[in-house]
């Protein structure tokens, strides 16, 4: 059943490339058939030479056959390689596209480096599987049948000896290749773990340097590399066993044919030309046998990588619900709050809720601040507001409509997110500003740069907006990255912007500039801010106190100072810091 499942997966993968695969198989088979006609001409040439007459037309035909065979096989190999590369490109495109839509709850539990290894390394192994199994394997089976038929026609007694020797080799090789699949899967998993470990270290290289743990991390990477080494070495050892078995079978068959054939020539049972023809045909028997073993080995070796790729493609993705909903327009859109949480319960693990029946509304204009201790659920509220997760119970509404029945793209076009770390992508400053923004005029871009205080930053960069920002935006300061993230949100023109402590990386002067910018922005769209600084809290029209996954207080800063003892305790350090 497992073998049937592997071949079924392989057949499904090859769907859409059958024409190219069959074309390569046909060319390979043509090369085999051209090769099998050569012993027949060689018999005529040898017998003619032995009789004292060199048949030049036959020799010319042999030369033409050699050239045609070489051309057919070369074209077959190129077509196989092209098919493998095309399939690898398409498979990587499919895996990458799937990973970009996988639910965040699944990605949170996985190792990104291992997923990268599956999308890159394992797909390359599948390329080898396709190039060496379908086309060559099919041609090898047909070529083997044709070669056996020719040998049986030339001399059935010599063929019987060859079959005995090759049969023993075939049994030994089958015993080896069955073990290659498990070894291949182990090696692929070890390589994925190594890539994941390396991605983890390089992603936190500043922490590694600051904590002086280069030696410790090098030991961990060395251990991972050692596992890859041992796994690949075990697989190489198994593959290496097939070589001597095949070589012994070929050498034994040649020796048997030469000794037995010489005796039969001496007795007059066969001519010297027939012995040469049989020997030459037997050399062509080795090629299809090798192709078949190579195909079986490739399937066994590649099935581990294909299994890991199928595991990725089986990961659940975000899917829009096919529910028809009316578009909210005009006055109805303006009356409904831009965002509403209704009795929302949510936990990252079953039975451990982070939000416990939380409810609040965000009006279409103005600033709403979220305050509360660490672990209270503020960041989780943002994650649900952006639909990175769906509530376990209750509902999140956008403009009065249940978010679960809105397409993800349409929903997220209405809600922008500025994270505290403000990650940027490798590329230019312009690339990051316009990322996901759609068409933007130069005038609008300049207006947003002025609003966010980025004009002096752009003026100071060597290539202005076309200056590369480095990996994760490391050529910019934390405050500059924060302002770039805010500008990117503004250029996308959302109805609501979520800001996770936007003043975290700013000096007092920049903070004052940002406060004025946020006040200006709040006149045209809604802002919801996770706040820890007094200045941010005080400028908000409404403050929500979040504690233990509940909204325990709601009102203006001054109202909460009067009505909420908890808020007064919470605000005391904010007042001192602000």
TrEMBL record:
<feature type="domain" description="ABC transporter">
    <location>
        <begin position="339"/>
        <end position="573"/>
    </location>
</feature>
<dbReference type="InterPro" id="IPR027417">
    <property type="entry name" value="P-loop_NTPase"/>
</dbReference>
<feature type="transmembrane region" description="Helical">
    <location>
        <begin position="159"/>
        <end position="177"/>
    </location>
</feature>
<keyword id="KW-0812">Transmembrane</keyword>
<feature type="transmembrane region" description="Helical">
    <location>
        <begin position="58"/>
        <end position="79"/>
    </location>
</feature>
<dbReference type="InterPro" id="IPR017871">
    <property type="entry name" value="ABC_transporter-like_CS"/>
</dbReference>
<dbReference type="Pfam" id="PF00664">
    <property type="entry name" value="ABC_membrane"/>
</dbReference>
<dbReference type="InterPro" id="IPR003439">
    <property type="entry name" value="ABC_transporter-like_ATP-bd"/>
</dbReference>
<comment type="similarity">
    <text>Belongs to the ABC transporter superfamily. Lipid exporter (TC 3.A.1.106) family.</text>
</comment>
<dbReference type="GO" id="GO:0005524">
    <property type="term" value="F:ATP binding"/>
</dbReference>
<feature type="transmembrane region" description="Helical">
    <location>
        <begin position="134"/>
        <end position="153"/>
    </location>
</feature>
<keyword id="KW-0067">ATP-binding</keyword>
<keyword id="KW-1003">Cell membrane</keyword>
<dbReference type="InterPro" id="IPR003593">
    <property type="entry name" value="AAA+_ATPase"/>
</dbReference>
<dbReference type="InterPro" id="IPR039421">
    <property type="entry name" value="Type_1_exporter"/>
</dbReference>
<keyword id="KW-0813">Transport</keyword>
<keyword id="KW-1133">Transmembrane helix</keyword>
<feature type="domain" description="ABC transmembrane type-1">
    <location>
        <begin position="22"/>
        <end position="301"/>
    </location>
</feature>
<dbReference type="GO" id="GO:0015421">
    <property type="term" value="F:ABC-type oligopeptide transporter activity"/>
</dbReference>
<dbReference type="InterPro" id="IPR036640">
    <property type="entry name" value="ABC1_TM_sf"/>
</dbReference>
<keyword id="KW-0547">Nucleotide-binding</keyword>
<dbReference type="GO" id="GO:0016887">
    <property type="term" value="F:ATP hydrolysis activity"/>
</dbReference>
<dbReference type="GO" id="GO:0005886">
    <property type="term" value="C:plasma membrane"/>
</dbReference>
<dbReference type="Pfam" id="PF00005">
    <property type="entry name" value="ABC_tran"/>
</dbReference>
<keyword id="KW-0472">Membrane</keyword>
<protein>
    <submittedName>
        <fullName>ATP-binding cassette subfamily B protein/ATP-binding cassette subfamily C protein</fullName>
    </submittedName>
</protein>
<dbReference type="InterPro" id="IPR011527">
    <property type="entry name" value="ABC1_TM_dom"/>
</dbReference>
